[in-house]
Amino acid sequence: MLSAILSSPSSSSTSTFPLRYSSPSSLTNLSSLPLTIGCRRTSKKSTHNNCSIRVQASSGMIEKETPETERPHTFLRESDEGSSGDESSKPNSVRARFEKMIREVQDSVCAALEDVDGGGKFKEDVWSRPGGGGGISRVLQDGDVFEKAGVNVSVVYGVMPPEAYRAARPVDNGNTKPGPIPFFAAGVSSVIHPKNPFAPTVHFNYRYFETDAPKDTPGAPRQWWFGGGTDLTPAYIFEEDVKHFHSVQKGACDKFDASFYPRFKKWCDDYFYIKHRDERRGLGGIFFDDLNDYDQEMLLSFSTECANSVIPAYIPIIEKRKDTPFTDEHKAWQQLRRGRYVEFNLVYDRGTTFGLKTGGRIESILVSLPLSARWEYDHQPVEGSEEWKLLDACINPKEWIC
Amino acid sequence: MLSAILSSPSSSSTSTFPLRYSSPSSLTNLSSLPLTIGCRRTSKKSTHNNCSIRVQASSGMIEKETPETERPHTFLRESDEGSSGDESSKPNSVRARFEKMIREVQDSVCAALEDVDGGGKFKEDVWSRPGGGGGISRVLQDGDVFEKAGVNVSVVYGVMPPEAYRAARPVDNGNTKPGPIPFFAAGVSSVIHPKNPFAPTVHFNYRYFETDAPKDTPGAPRQWWFGGGTDLTPAYIFEEDVKHFHSVQKGACDKFDASFYPRFKKWCDDYFYIKHRDERRGLGGIFFDDLNDYDQEMLLSFSTECANSVIPAYIPIIEKRKDTPFTDEHKAWQQLRRGRYVEFNLVYDRGTTFGLKTGGRIESILVSLPLSARWEYDHQPVEGSEEWKLLDACINPKEWIC
């Protein structure tokens, strides 16, 4: 299970999978599960690149990241591509189609960002694990338009402790103890920080999770679910931008269920909450997790629709704001808000905090942090100012679409 | 107990008091104790300054911070200054002398920093609580030499849950349940970030803690202990600077016990450890906590000696490095190391993380964060470079004094 974390590309990413099983407050319980994870430099002179990641579950599984020079056509295990009787092993399985989708999204988003940037290019890191799975991290840093943009995909085969498998409980007669349960996880995750203080930051993440049916617990089913979201974090409010962004999210949601947008909009406001500031990180969007109480095909289509909505939701805003003239004061305010972004990600974001604690690929996890951030003592925006309006909207989430 | 946190001025500050009672891993247990803490804006338009802090312990105690226009001559309760039979209530009590010491240290350190800076001046915030206690926060921001320097003192009267009082256990016969135990805490805490990338950051914190004897548990004694430390975080190593710094720490220690420096030097290396990077925040110094197995007067003198050693340990280094010419690359590396500082303080520092979770005075807690910080994807210093040497010393702590 923890290996889902290890290859987690970014904040609130695939790393949130394990939380399906437990409330956020029981994170420490998860950490103390019978899994040991090591991420140690092998020599005194070695650097981050030499960090090897091993996962040792109660099953004895050990996985180690291997850098790859080329992208494989799939990170799925061969058995998943074959034609065994197992549904998940077919080439048109949900896991296969989800991987195809997130890799296409990674390609199209990176292409769109490079296109808007004009100068910056994405640097790519590819890795795999011997037992299957792997990931592609892409980062564009210090471009003409973007300060830092990370777009990562990962596919993980892991093993979760049986205690974490909810579905096993109802048929547990107290005599049989199911063994560790294999799981599959895949996700795309991205944080994009532009340079211009009037151009907003965006974050999106879409993920799919599947477990095998526990072998020793007859009747306990295979489990699956979807999670994800897209949210906007401006330093200044342009109401037309925020409305456009939320409208695109709503449009994607409404194609599937009229209840989705209001429900996932509120979920987003609740999730990206900086408790010690009593304010949200930004102006929200949509967020959902543990979604499996709808048709699986419908949710695959829904996730695909959401992921494909990132470009139409975000790129027009960037096109409009990337060259807006700004002052040092505007930049300083953006940097202060970046500080809040850092606070949320390091203190609250489940994927980040869990990933850090369990020894995930640090550079992939922390690619969500901005290139630069700022903390001024007791900064108070002047009431009624543009900075104050943004802060007010972070404190009191608004309905952007009437 | 939590009110110790609430007025905690900074990282690894007085906030670490409660941890006397529990291992770091049981922080969440502390959070779930029967205390409720509220830090809410009172109106939609209010800002941080209006954040009121209330502590509601099982005893029903409610404390609220009140801004003060003048510094009181003491934050001790009147009873502590009187001449009742209670030892702690005498004017020459340890708590009274400790408060006097930390306020003198605050004055002298601030004067020395303003003197070196030449331009920047400290801004002061004073607050008190109706039931006694209070604090003085001083921040110098964007000076000529210092990017951000915070020097805070605080005095706290709180109540800790009986479950947290170790000394009560041996005489607990299982029939009597002791009530909440009043405690007293006082500390000085400071983080100083200079502008010049060759001038190091310093952090120091000295604190004293006392409990009353539990009334309902005959034989359970009054408890007290000392904690603190001073540590250096450069972006570049000047061996003579680091040796000077450690020599002053060793000199202070050796006046009291030859075992102190080696023991507290290692404790410091162990405490300021960024686990997910497998590196220390900086080049260490001394750190100790829970110290009560020596004569109380001796430890008061030792804490005083350590606190008074900050100026001779640090100011000569700043004088030497504040005007060293530097390039954009030097500055960028300093900013990257500032990013590590942020990571340590937000992810690991007990005082900061606990303070954030329990609703402390945010601006005082986060004054430890630098004015600006930076995160580059997968930055790797060139082997053998000055940046690499610093990183290597953070990964492999050295003995600076042979």
From TrEMBL, chains A, B:
What GO CC terms are in its UniProt record?
A: chloroplast stroma
User: Zinc-finger as a keyword?
Assistant: no
Gene Ontology process terms (BP)? chlorophyll biosynthetic process; protoporphyrinogen IX biosynthetic process
Basic and acidic residues composition bias: which ranges? 62-80
MF term (GO), any: coproporphyrinogen oxidase activity
Q: What is its main location?
A: plastid
What subcellular locations does the record give?
Plastid, Chloroplast
Give the residue ranges for region: Disordered: 1-29, 43-94
| Record carries keyword Transit peptide | yes
A Pfam family recorded for this sequence? Coprogen_oxidas
What's its catalytic activity? coproporphyrinogen III + O2 + 2 H(+) = protoporphyrinogen IX + 2 CO2 + 2 H2O
The record's SUPFAM superfamilies line, in alphabetical order, gives: Coproporphyrinogen III oxidase
Biased composition (Polar residues) is annotated at 48-59
UniProt keywords (A-Z) are: Chlorophyll biosynthesis, Chloroplast, Heme biosynthesis, Oxidoreductase, Plastid, Porphyrin biosynthesis, Transit peptide
Q: Tell me its EC number(s), please.
A: 1.3.3.3
Q: InterPro entries per the record?
A: Coprogen_oxidase_aer, Coprogen_oxidase_aer_sf, Coprogen_oxidase_CS
UniProt pathway: Porphyrin-containing compound metabolism; protoporphyrin-IX biosynthesis; protoporphyrinogen-IX from coproporphyrinogen-III (O2 route): step 1/1
Subunit info here reads: Homodimer.
What family does the entry list? Answer: Belongs to the aerobic coproporphyrinogen-III oxidase family.
Q: Please give the NCBIfam families that the UniProt record associates with this protein.
A: PRK05330.1 (NF003727)
| PANTHER family for this protein | COPROPORPHYRINOGEN III OXIDASE, MITOCHONDRIAL, OXYGEN-DEPENDENT COPROPORPHYRINOGEN-III OXIDASE, MITOCHONDRIAL
Q: What is this protein called?
A: coproporphyrinogen oxidase
**What's the source species for this entry?**
Solanum pinnatisectum (tansyleaf nightshade)
